[in-house]
Design goal:
Number of helices: 13
CATH topology of one domain: hpI Integrase, Chain A
CATH superfamily of one domain: Intergrase catalytic core
Order of helices and strands: HHEHHEHHHEEEHHHHHH
Distance between the termini: 48 Å
Largest sheet: 3 strands, antiparallel
CATH architecture of one domain: Orthogonal Bundle
Shape: elongated
CATH class of one domain: Mainly Alpha
Number of strands: 5
Structural class: mainly alpha
Low-confidence stretches: 1-7, 107-111, 300-305, 314-327
Strand content: under 5%
Amino acid sequence: MIVREQSTVFQSPLREWMTRFIQEKRRLGHRYDTECNVLHRLDRSLCGWGLDGEQLPREFVERFTAASSYETPGSQGVRVRLARQFAKYLKRSGIDAYVLPERMGPVRVSHQVAYVFSHQQIAAMLSAVDHLEPEGHAPLRHFIMPEVFRLLYSSGMRISEVLELRVADVDLDLGILTVRDAKFRTDRLVPVGATMKERLKKYASLVGQRGPDSMFFPAPDGGPYSVSTAYGVFRILLRLSGIPHGGRGRGPRLHDLRHTFAVHRLARWYRQGADLTAKLPYLSAYMGHRSLAGTQRYLRLTPEIFPDVVNSVEAFAGSAIPRRPAP
């Protein structure tokens, strides 16, 4: 399990308030890992600013949250929200702090519509990953990545959840994976199908016996593979499968395999005649969402993708499944 307490060491005059702020957020169930990294950046900036005493001046906040030419609006947005939340926390604590106006920050017209891979595209990507060549610096990569990408599609797990699995988390007899300290700081059980279970058994026998705390999918250094490494493989698979990539911010994204799992599962249930109103809560729990609303937001279908499913689910999910605007 990842130990995060070491990452909450700050050095500016507001260091104690930063530590308390992070602790409060995590007690409420938020992971707050990305925000903690941004808070460290704020802390370093405050040290360079030469802050005199416990305060958060307006001039500093505006400079810290200003847009940079090299970043996306989303990156700036994280910084703006963090600065606003931290300033509000300071003011509640009696500290002089400037709170950014609520309308400050990048304006997002709409959420990006999920890219849903077709069954043919998924088959092409899995075929491509099965043919990865061994690499000298990563001798197990061609064994590991086929199982990683099959898990992403067949279980809808987040990429970080797959990469951080340990040997003790994978019950090869029952075919149940234990996702520990997932989003919202909860554990959950993820059953896999019979075919996936047999593949994982075969993979484990090829890798050999290891200790229970070892990574199930070990990187060359024995730790977990990074998300960026998995994304690099993903881009290779897109190219080999003839699937175009629209560039940064347009996708397809690695996370879209999770979207695809949800949409394909919903479509299968619909064609089996299942009651989707009753099934969606099960999908929500399986995917590790805090509420049903989280599952509905994942199912951003367009009329061109399974239109019969869209029509059926809209009565239950309403605007959670937006339609693409007319050209």
